[in-house]
UniProtKB/TrEMBL annotation:
This is Unannotated protein. It comes from freshwater metagenome. Residues 217-278 form the Glucose-1-phosphate adenylyltransferase/Bifunctional protein GlmU-like C-terminal hexapeptide domain. Residues 3-207 form the Nucleotidyl transferase domain.
Length: 288
């Protein structure tokens, strides 16, 4: 439920799914599962049906897919989002590619400058996946798994139910070995793994800049006229920015306060936390 540009990160993914014509979502949750349903409810406020698959014990990426799929009531291929990736990729195009290739599974892939931190994916001339590689010093390609998959339902049914399974290390290699039609949909649109605080802050700033704004002030926030707010900052609901404060590239949580004359750069301030006046900080996490 971490916020990115003023709303929970998951909400950005839900909006993306809805805009692609998806009508039903199952949120696979384990850690802090109780936080999701009070906010998202049944999805009526978001124009989409939302259900919840709560894991009492973490089942891994493959086990989570198998567990969540039992709650789906529709038909046809299923889109699966990793919970820590934000992208501008063409989800409708990925579905169309999946259908055109009569694929069993289609992975969204992207290109990175340095693939050493990722598992590189090799493709043949038709776009079919020929190999999955673990992280290595000299990857054979800069094309990597970008964390959005389309599965045919019969493929999901083959994932052991109730077991801990890694889709990346077990399911995908097993599908290749069995001759399944696994394809890669390469899209070089905006993509970011938000697995670190630095990346989370970047995602928030990128979305604000994408709105053609220099900062985003949410409802009820109070910003003193003598302060300076810039760099894609987000000023949370009912938060207060004091006189002559300077806020650059920061996320200020709901109800937080930044004292007079404080100067913050690339900082997170937790909800309801009070930053004293005249503090100077860069890259700090206040209240966490």
């Amino acid at each position: 439920m971490l916020q990115v540009a003023g709303v929970p990160f998951t909400e950005h993914q839900i909006r993306k799914a809805r805009e692609a014509g998806i009508s039903e979502i199952v949120l696979a949750t384990s850690f802090k599962a109780e936080l999701f349903e009070p906010y998202f409810g049944d999805g009526a406020n978001f124009g989409i049906s939302i259900k919840y698959a709560v894991e009492e014990v973490a089942l891994g990426t493959g086990g989570a897919i198998s567990n969540a799929a039992q709650f789906l009531s529709g038909t046809g291929p299923i889109a699966i989002f990793n919970g820590d990736v934000i992208s501008g990729h063409d989800l409708v195009g990925q579905f169309n590619f999946h259908e055109a290739k009569s694929a069993d599974v289609t992975l969204f892939l992207t290109q990175v400058e340095d693939a050493r931190a990722f598992g590189a994916v090799e493709l043949d001339g038709s776009g079919r996946v020929s190999a999955f590689n673990e992280k290595m010093e000299n990857p054979p390609t800069n094309i990597v798994n970008a964390g959005c998959y389309i599965f045919n339902r019969e493929i999901i049914e083959k994932i052991p139910f109730g077991k801990v399974v890694s889709v990346e290390r077990e399911t995908f290699p097993q599908l290749l070995e069995a001759g399944a039609k696994v394809f890669g949909f390469v899209d070089t649109s905006y993509w970011l793994d938000i697995g670190t605080p630095t990346a989370l802050l970047k995602a928030s700033k990128d979305i604000v800049f994408g709105m053609k704004k220099d900062f985003l002030a949410l409802e009820g926030s109070v910003i003193d006229s003598g302060s300076i707010v810039s760099g894609g900052s987000v000023i949370g609901r009912k938060s207060k920015i004091g006189a002559e404060a300077e806020i650059n590239s920061c996320v200020i949580g709901d109800g937080a306060e930044v004292g007079d004359g404080a100067k913050l750069v690339n900082c997170f301030v937790a909800a309801d936390f009070k930053v004293p006046g005249h503090v100077i900080a860069e890259g700090n996490y206040f209240g966490f």
